[in-house]
Amino acid sequence: TLILGIETSCDETSAAVVRGGTELLSNVISSQMDVHRKFGGVVPEVASRRHVERITIIVQKALEEAGVGRNELDAVAVTQGPGLVGALLIGVSAAKALAFSLGKPLVPVHHIAGHIYANHLIKPLSFPLVALVVSGGHTELIYMKGHNQFERLGKTRDDAAGEAFDKVARLMKLPYPGGPQIDRLALEGKPSYPLPRAWLESDSLDFSFSGLKSAVLNLVHNANQRKEEIHYADLAASFQDAVLDVLVEKAMLAVKKTGVNQLLLAGGVSANSGLRVRLSKRCKEEKIDLRIPPLELCTDNAAMIAAAGTYQFLDGHYADLTLNADANLPLIG
Ligand code: ATP
Ligand code: MG
Ligand code: FE
After folding, report:
1. pTM here?
2. Is 241 annotated as a binding residue?
3. With pLDDT > 70 as the criterion, what percentage of the chain qualifies?
4. Which residues pair with 3 in a beta bridge?
5. CA nearest 115: which of 70, 157, 160?
6. Where in the numbering of this chain does the Gcp-like domain appear (predicted)?
7. How far is CA 117 from the centre of its chain?
8. Which among 155, 194, 218, 293 could bridge 118 via Cys, Cβ 3.0 to 4.6 Å?
9. 36 close to ligand 1 (CB < 6 Angstrom)
10. Which helix (H) or strand (E) holds 154?
């Protein structure tokens, strides 16, 4: 199977060609990071306009780099949601137009399924497995017993992990996006500030990060009032340590509870160097087969959408031309 994937859910315009669900032939990503940085976050209208400007050329480039003619494609897969509705619409419209003109199936893909399938591009998934999804909008533990079969074991009750990173970074006056900045700063500091970990009920696989975010806010506020100096590298290290403690322990608990042998890391926060190191160490100790995407497949890209789309296509999950973008599309129906 030759699948073209299209992803425009947030601030990356991306198109990719994947063969057989695993073989990455091209993955063109046009990031809008520089455009949004001066606003301190993604501005939806600006993102949509930029997607419109870029999408045609990015699709063209993905086909060229793959050395694939559009008539050779088996289907066009596109992120239907979740994400910014205006941004999603650009990808959905482009995919519809292409699928219609080629007479090929249009395959809708859930963005988080994509993040999970990024791992499949490195080595085929082996089921059953647990995926720890940590991104800008999601923090979830997902159980899969086969392709396209998603069960939710737990999720965040408030902020997503990436959102917490970005908000705390903003508090520390670091530029957008904050996750990579905190990651970098944390390497230079020690986790010396005491910050809370939200374990919730014992045995719970849910998460909560808003208390931690408030604790950092209070700490900064109090220090400012008392005119005390804050050691920002130590604060970054302390915050990251608190997030990772919970992520790693809950992921290990999910693996134990379900008795699986494979753990996947997925989503933008998978790029975090501390998380990669700590999870690798724990999984080595516990003899769990851990998969972590390479950095370029951690954040938003169309290759992961093409990979996930391949199995939707093989299952015959096609959409017709009435397909609409869905900002709140659920992974589990
Ligand atoms: P979702 O996938 O939930 O729809 P999204 O697509 O906006 O949200 P991603 O692009 O998957 O999110 O990931 C972006 C998030 O990852 C941001 O919150 C960013 O700060 C975070 N992130 C990226 N790199 C790192 C890092 N090295 N350490 C921590 N967080 C990181
Ligand atoms: Mg992004
Ligand atoms: Fe994402």
Report:
1. 0.97
2. no
3. 100
4. 18, 75
5. 160
6. 23-306
7. 11
8. 293
9. no
10. strand 149-155
Ligand 1 atom closest to the Cα of residue 240 is 29
Q: What is the pLDDT of residues 163-216, one digit of tens each?
A: 999 999 999 999 989 999 999 999 999 999 999 999 999 899 999 999 999 999
- ipTM value: 0.98
Length of the chain in terms of residues written: 333
Determine whether the annotation assigns residue 158 to a binding site. no
Question: What is the C-alpha separation between 42 and 7, in angstroms, rounded?
Answer: 16
Ligand 3 centroid distance, CA of 226 (Å): 39
Ligand 1 near 136 CB (within 6 A): yes
Burial (Cβ within 10 Å: 0-12, 13-18, ≥19) of residue 315? exposed
Neighbours of 157 (CB within 10 A): 14
Q: Which of 135, 142, 168, 243 for a ligand 1 pocket mutation test, highest count of atoms within 8 Å of Cβ?
A: 135
pLDDT in tens, 135-162: 999 999 999 999 999 999 999 999 999 9
The rounded distance, in Å, linking the Cα atoms of 13 and 28 is 8
SS3 content of the chain, % helix, strand, coil (to 5): 45, 20, 35
CA atoms within 13 A on the CB side of 151: 12
Chain centroid to Cα 260, Å, comes to: 22
Q: Which of 182, 171, 176 is nearest to 218 (CA)?
A: 171
Contacts of 132 (CB under 8 A, 6+ apart): 140, 141, 247, 250, 251, 254, 263, 264, 265, 266, 279
For 41-45, 110-114, 226-230, which range has the lowest pLDDT when averaged over its residues?
Answer: 41-45
Rg (CA), the chain: 20
Q: Which of 67, 101, 21 is nearest to 313 (CA)?
A: 21
Residues 6 or more apart from 137 whose CB is under 8 A from it? 82, 83, 160, 162, 163
Judge if the beta carbon of residue 274 lies within 6 A of ligand 1: no
